[in-house]
Amino acid sequence: MFDFFSGCGGTSAGLQDAGMEIVFALDFDVDAAATFKANFPKAAFFHKDVTKMRADSITDLVGEDRTSPILFCGCAPCQPFSQQNGRRSKTDHRIPLLAHFARFVKFHQPDFVLVENVPGIQKVSRKSGPLPSFLRILKRLHYSFAMDTVDCCDYGVPQKRKRFVLLASKLGSVSLPPKTHGPGRPNPSYSTVGEWILGLPKLAAGENSVLLKNHRAASLSPTNLARIKATPIGGGRKDWPVELQLKCHADHDGHTDVYGRLRLDQPASALTTRCISLSNGRFGHPTQARAISVREAAKLQTFDDGFGFSGSLNSMARQIGNAVPVLFAKRLGETFVNAAQEHQSELSHGDV
Q1: What pLDDT does 216 receive?
Q2: Which of 48, 131, 171, 328 has the most beta carbons within 10 angstroms of its beta carbon?
Q3: Would 285 be classed as within a structural domain?
Q4: What's the CATH code of the domain at 63?
Q5: Contact 327/168 with Cβ under 8 angstroms?
Q6: pLDDT per residue over 114-156, tens digit each?
Q7: Beta strand 144-151 with 162-169: parallel, antiparallel or unpaired?
Q8: Could you say which of 73, 75, 78, 275 is catalytic?
């Protein structure tokens, strides 16, 4: 598997769990690069700007005689297309990244291609934007593909996180994996916050646990500490006494998630790059007087406890918020693995 825009490695971790070998990764972020290299020491990591790389620069890694199917994964930064980005600009340098990923796809024509992003990528110029252009390339190269907007909680992730997913194959048809969680599915209940983070060592705001890697919580001001203590499980700023309320929230019914506590019996709200900050979303711990820790955020993104993160507190939160949930990536990876096995079976029986 070749992981472009790898970030800290959520996609790679999931695809590795699905049975794939991580051959190559690329990212320009210093801390994400350090995190990835520490967790995938056998992969060739390129700490480079993809816009300045030639498509043939990875030819030696791809190899001339392919004995196993190859997957190219391009989960480019999603902020330019996010609905939460109120300052979206047509000149954002991150928008053309899918086109640069396409250069590598055109040159090497891997057996499989995976693209994951926010649903907003479909709405950036429906005719000439990055996604329509990419789809035209896939069609010219005779890829079969399937795409849709899905919610990660439908695949066992304890988080409501809607994502656009595109799967493409040169080895026959491909489809999105069947949903596993929710009413009428193999697991009728969604995975919850409580199932994933209860039982971890207790922390106070500003503490760093010596018992669990990256189990570290951000500090709180005395006022914000009083606010979280005044917030019930699943509650928010509307539960505070008058003296703790912010003037900017007076007569304002929006942004009800900010300063909120997570609910134990439900999936979390979508984690952002500020997922350990009490004032930036519903990121308060369900029962303790603090925001969730780095490790708790990572668990809600379904990283295992052995996966370590490098950098400052804010950098680790950014890496986690930007990551593809590991379990979701695994489900996508299993689809490709099954497609490869079916293709090999057809070849061995002379069906193609």
Answers
A1: 98
A2: 328
A3: no
A4: 3.40.50.150
A5: no
A6: 999 988 765 544 566 788 999 999 999 999 999 999 999 999 9
A7: antiparallel
A8: 78
